[in-house]
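Continuing the batch. This is chain 6 of the set; chains 1 through 5 are on the previous pages. Same settings as before, nothing changed between runs. Recording input and output for traceability.
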Amino acid sequence: MSSRNEPYEAPAIQAFASELTAWREKAGLSKTALAETLGYTPQWICQVEAAKSIPSKDFAENLDTYFKTNGVFERQQKRIIETRHMAILPPGFTEYQQREAEASQIRTFELGLVHGLLQSEGYIRAVVGYDQEAETVERLVAERLKRQEILTRENPPNASFTLDESALRREIGGPGVMREQLAHILALGERANVSIDVVPFNTGYYPGLIGSFTILSFSGAPDVVYGEISGRGVLLQEPTIVSRFAVRYNSLRGEALRVRESRTLIKSVMEEYG
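Output for chain 6:
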């Protein structure tokens, strides 16, 4: 099953890895010895113990049989599958999402995709459904829709979204999904707590082309910045760095069309999708 270079942060996967190491060491077995006994490769055992691979049901059952654990590994593996949708999230994103729900102000710049808080259900499904099982997709869609409720709850944060025009024109899920997505952006932009503007293609080069980021502000706590690099989430809290991102965001908004002009552009792009 899934393997990668960096360990999964999901608690269920980490717990399985720890249990395997504990049972193997208690039995006085090396990874190679256990692999040969069960008919797996030493590399596979190393990957699972490092929380870099998701163990299969058969592997869990084999471990339970060999170590006589009364189902410990099978229960752990079941928990992994039940929470697998969390395992594919970028490392660091879970902490960011917790902070996002507490923020009083959200300022975000998006280069290539519509921001998660603005995504329509069809767009979400197209994004999170890439190379994923149906059950996992449904859970991810439900969680993202739940996350979006911060914009419509009582006492919502003030949210400013600056999008590069490419985020509007990159066709995700087909023309119908994109038309629905752009209509959804326009509807959210009518809310008093939401501001949406667009940096048009004819701007040419500007600093936003370096990458997307989000600034979260809180009542009584310092601002933080979140970004993703090569699929890994990074939460920045050092005041000097955060202040630089605030300056950058203000600069990017200076490149964007005014809100009314941005709405006109969004409507124009939406009409192109038919």
